[in-house]
């Protein structure tokens, strides 16, 4: 008796199934029987035919035939009739990256139409195993179907989700809902892929059609981990309704969806997750921090302790966050110590409102490192800054000398006429001269400030504000140099006669270009 092979158009000889082969093919039989009832236009496939196909395929030589342009174009354009003359198994017709005709077609669809859905149905009816064929390497069909999460590349369902084809996804899932259990090489299940790409319609179809789809994603995350980050509240509700324990699933870092919602300060999502399962609030990550501790780092209020004994107040002190209302709350124990025997004041002695609220140092911390004035920068950087400070101080002193001298050797000289104006400057009424005086004075004041700052840094080289003061001194030095250059140009322009205004303008342009050049060099250096 001859029967029709699932993937081959020519008839093949049926052989008797052994008990072992039959048990391995049960899943495939269920899949193809479902196809027979779903597709009215396809021939009914008997159980013996399916069993024969599973038993015969391992005996065939699995020689992959690479698609030429003819077959590739036919697949991309959805011309199923052109494959009537192809006598080899369709699932062995591959592109160089192992994509099947179903992969090629789904990736080529621009807009879903009735014709595109029909092509998918026809391909599935001729070769159902294409539904789970990966586009990277081959494996036994029964093995692929029996394993819920296998490290293969994208199946046809993954490609349909990735390219956002909801109707194709529905067609594939109607063929067999269990295909939603398969993850690709990146560890992404179809549902996770839909959630991370925010394809609401596709995710809804997967949840609607599949009784228990895989929710997994990379790094231990689930579809709900991604859904709490997206704005789709409806998807979150459906995920929690279909699989309630997703609220307590932890990724590789120990974070639950509630950790992510707390970190992002999404209060509405936090409320939804807590209403669903309040116990998720007590789950700690790898470091023992609960979602409440994570929330505190983003200026939220809670009173729990992590595995190091740190309460939110301890974390507040070390991160410099403002939560005065929490600190002053009557139920907060202000003398609580962590496992290092440190109170909140020990960990943040510079936070003034901790002292005002009644927090005290722990007895065990007296004389410990918390009282030390340890520099906030390492020794190597401190040495470099100190050497730079010496050079900057010399530059500031030179600017101070030049600007101070310019104040008593004013351009244009002094009036020697008898009267009230004797000894005054000749160019007092010129705008350029006024600009010279103002910019020279500011440059002198800034240079004096720089010298003073570097003097302080030399006296207290381990001051905790060294880096802060050094940056201000650097800024003042650059500004003083700029104003000194402006004063020079203004002074030169002030002494130029009206007949030589062109020369004065040229000098100002040259000076401006030099200032821009200095700016570009400084920007490149920093």
Automatic annotation (TrEMBL):
<keyword id="KW-1133">Transmembrane helix</keyword>
<dbReference type="Pfam" id="PF12796">
    <property type="entry name" value="Ank_2"/>
</dbReference>
<feature type="repeat" description="ANK">
    <location>
        <begin position="253"/>
        <end position="285"/>
    </location>
</feature>
<feature type="transmembrane region" description="Helical">
    <location>
        <begin position="466"/>
        <end position="496"/>
    </location>
</feature>
<feature type="transmembrane region" description="Helical">
    <location>
        <begin position="436"/>
        <end position="459"/>
    </location>
</feature>
<keyword id="KW-0472">Membrane</keyword>
<keyword id="KW-0677">Repeat</keyword>
<feature type="transmembrane region" description="Helical">
    <location>
        <begin position="502"/>
        <end position="522"/>
    </location>
</feature>
<dbReference type="InterPro" id="IPR002110">
    <property type="entry name" value="Ankyrin_rpt"/>
</dbReference>
<dbReference type="InterPro" id="IPR036770">
    <property type="entry name" value="Ankyrin_rpt-contain_sf"/>
</dbReference>
<dbReference type="Pfam" id="PF13962">
    <property type="entry name" value="PGG"/>
</dbReference>
<keyword id="KW-0812">Transmembrane</keyword>
<feature type="domain" description="PGG">
    <location>
        <begin position="385"/>
        <end position="495"/>
    </location>
</feature>
<keyword id="KW-0040">ANK repeat</keyword>
<protein>
    <recommendedName>
        <fullName>PGG domain-containing protein</fullName>
    </recommendedName>
</protein>
<dbReference type="InterPro" id="IPR026961">
    <property type="entry name" value="PGG_dom"/>
</dbReference>
<dbReference type="GO" id="GO:0005886">
    <property type="term" value="C:plasma membrane"/>
</dbReference>
């Amino acid at each position: 008796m001859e029967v029709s092979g699932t993937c081959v158009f020519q008839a093949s000889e049926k052989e008797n199934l052994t008990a072992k082969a039959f048990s391995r093919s049960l899943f495939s039989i269920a899949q193809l029987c479902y196809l027979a009832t779903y597709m009215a236009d396809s021939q009914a496939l008997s159980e013996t035919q399916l069993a024969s196909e599973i038993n015969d395929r391992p005996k065939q030589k699995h020689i992959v035939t690479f698609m030429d342009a003819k077959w590739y174009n036919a697949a991309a354009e959805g011309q199923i009739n052109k494959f009537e003359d192809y006598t080899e198994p369709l699932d062995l017709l591959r592109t160089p990256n192992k994509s099947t005709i179903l992969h090629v077609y789904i990736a080529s669809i621009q807009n879903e139409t009735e014709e595109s859905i029909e092509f998918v149905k026809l391909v599935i009816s001729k070769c159902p195993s294409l539904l789970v064929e990966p586009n990277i390497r081959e494996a036994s069909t029964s093995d692929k179907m029996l394993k819920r999460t296998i490290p293969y590349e994208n199946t046809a369902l993954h490609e349909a989700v990735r390219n956002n084809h909801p109707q194709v996804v529905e067609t594939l899932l109607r063929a067999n809902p269990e295909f939603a259990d398969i993850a690709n090489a990146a560890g992404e299940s179809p549902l996770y892929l839909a959630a991370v790409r925010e394809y609401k319609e596709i995710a809804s179809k997967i949840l609607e059609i599949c009784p228990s789809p895989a929710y997994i994603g990379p790094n231990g995350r689930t579809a709900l981990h991604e859904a709490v980050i997206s704005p789709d509240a409806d998807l979150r509700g459906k995920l929690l309704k279909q699989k309630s324990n997703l609220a307590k699933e932890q990724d590789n870092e120990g974070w639950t969806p509630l950790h992510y919602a707390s970190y992002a300060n999404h209060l509405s999502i936090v409320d939804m997750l807590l209403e669903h399962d309040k116990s998720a609030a007590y789950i700690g990550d790898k470091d023992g921090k609960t979602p409440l501790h994570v929330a505190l780092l983003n200026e939220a209020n809670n009173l729990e302790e992590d595995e190091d004994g740190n309460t939110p107040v301890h974390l507040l002190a070390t991160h410099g966050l403002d939560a005065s209302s929490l600190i002053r709350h009557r139920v907060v124990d202000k003398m609580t110590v962590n496992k290092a025997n440190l109170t909140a004041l020990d960990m943040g002695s510079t936070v003034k409102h901790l002292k005002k609220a009644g927090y005290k140092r722990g007895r065990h911390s007296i004389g410990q490192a918390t009282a030390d004035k340890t520099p906030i920068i390492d020794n190597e950087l401190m040495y470099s800054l100190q050497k730079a400070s010496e050079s900057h101080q010399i530059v500031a002193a030179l600017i101070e000398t030049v600007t101070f001298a310019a104040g008593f050797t004013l351009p244009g000289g002094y009036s020697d006429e008898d009267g009230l104006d004797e000894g005054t400057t000749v160019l007092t009424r010129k705008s350029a001269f006024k600009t010279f005086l103002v910019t020279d004075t500011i440059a002198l004041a800034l240079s004096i400030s720089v010298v003073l700052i570097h003097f302080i840094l030399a006296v207290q080289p381990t001051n905790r504000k060294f880096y802060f003061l050094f940056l201000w001194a650097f800024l003042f030095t650059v500004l003083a140099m700029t104003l000194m250059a402006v004063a020079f140009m203004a002074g030169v322009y002030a002494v130029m006669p009206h007949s030589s205004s062109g020369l004065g303008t040229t000098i100002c342009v040259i000076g401006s270009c030099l200032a821009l050049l200095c700016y570009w060099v400084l920007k490149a250096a920093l």
